[in-house]
From TrEMBL:
One of its GO terms (cellular component) is cytoplasm. This is Hepatic and glial cell adhesion molecule. Residues 161-230, 238-320 form the Ig-like domain. Gene3D superfamilies: Immunoglobulins.
Length: 342
């Protein structure tokens, strides 16, 4: 979160000044991907930091480039004191047995990306992917950091303090107003003993409002010009919806040649900027993505990436879209889940 406001104002009747300090504790930041690519297999990633939520899905998105037409050998490791092998595959086909804690939660996509669903808190950490192809001299490597928040976790980054004073008069009393309504002490709103200073701790979205102070004594009173406090926050975890609505485990389904509209909602201030990825590759910019007369090649994973350009923070959500071949029989038979291993 981040907040801004007017810093100096004058009151009515007799001068009143009100000013605010803000104390910045920290913002999540997205580090740019490491620069420089290896000869042989070159790996790129749209982001070096993925923020996920327990119980949801996370896509660690990469792309590789190679002159060879052979299938790649992909290896994902979770960096610990002793690295943990998450998965190894040839193309999308997983080699060997997955560890018990990864079974039914891990998929490798055609471009080498790793889909983890549902996330567990223990999944948090730095993930290194290696891609090697027989004809290439060097192995490509890339590291992506994954954070996993609990469902109830709230981000807390700042507090702010407002001070009210006056130039003339004796025996004043002070009253703080939010949107014209009096404030009193509670667990987050702290008033100094003389009521001149208001401190709001653990800033929330609800604190985005207009504040003023009222100064009174037995013979006079005055009220400050309101101060607008803006709370920058988000983006929240995206919610993906689809029309026509056809839910399926892990995502949605559609019939081939249907018109499909994917929408993404991630509350944020300022409003989120949205990016869509199909099987790990960016395909669209905007809150709504229209797939007219969808084909089987457009099946697979769709990730909505929401970005707060002011705070430089990002969140994402991923669903699986299954495309069915037209058939009079019911239930429909899926033609494919492009990019996903069986």
């Amino acid at each position: 979160m981040h907040l801004e406001g007017i810093q100096y104002i004058f009151g009515m009747g007799f001068p009143i000044s009100l000013w605010a300090w803000r104390t910045l504790i920290g913002h999540p930041t997205v580090s740019p991907p490491p620069q420089g690519l290896l000869a042989g297999v070159n790996i790129t990633s749209p982001t070096a930091l993925v923020r996920g939520t327990a119980g949801k899905a996370a896509l660690l998105s990469v792309r590789y480039a190679s002159a060879s037409a052979d299938k790649p050998v992909v290896k994902w490791q979770l960096k610990r004191d002793k690295p943990v092998t998450v998965v190894q595959s040839i193309g999308t086909e997983i080699i060997g047995n997955l560890r018990p804690d990864y079974r039914d939660r891990i998929r490798v996509l055609e471009n080498g990306s790793l889909l983890i669903s549902p996330l567990q808190l223990s999944d948090e950490g730095a993930y290194e992917v290696e891609v090697s192809i027989t004809d290439d001299t060097f192995t490509g490597e890339k590291t992506i950091n994954l954070t996993v928040d609990s469902k109830s976790k709230k981000d807390v980054h700042e507090f702010f303090t407002l001070n009210c004073s006056h130039e003339n008069g004796t025996k004043p009393t002070y009253t703080w107003l939010k949107d014209g309504r009096p404030l009193s002490n509670d667990s987050r709103l702290l008033l100094s003993p003389d009521q001149k200073i208001l401190t709001i701790t653990r800033v929330l979205m609800a604190d985005d409002d207009v504040y003023s102070c009222l100064v009174e004594n037995p013979i006079s009173h005055g009220r400050s010009i309101p101060v607008k406090i803006t709370v920058y926050h988000g983006p929240d975890e995206p919610a993906i919806s689809m029309e026509p609505f056809s839910p399926e485990q892990g995502g949605f389904s559609a019939g081939e040649h249907e018109d499909v509209v994917l929408s993404c909602q991630a509350p944020s201030n300022p409003p989120s900027r949205y990016f869509w990825l199909h099987n790990g590759s960016q395909v669209h910019v905007g809150q709504t993505y229209i797939l007219a007369a969808i084909t089987r090649t457009q099946a697979g994973t769709y990730t909505c990436l929401a970005e707060n350009t002011h705070l430089q923070t990002r969140t994402q959500a991923t669903i699986v879209l299954t495309v069915y071949s037209p058939s009079p029989a019911w239930p429909r038979t899926p033609c494919c889940r492009r990019g996903l291993s069986a």
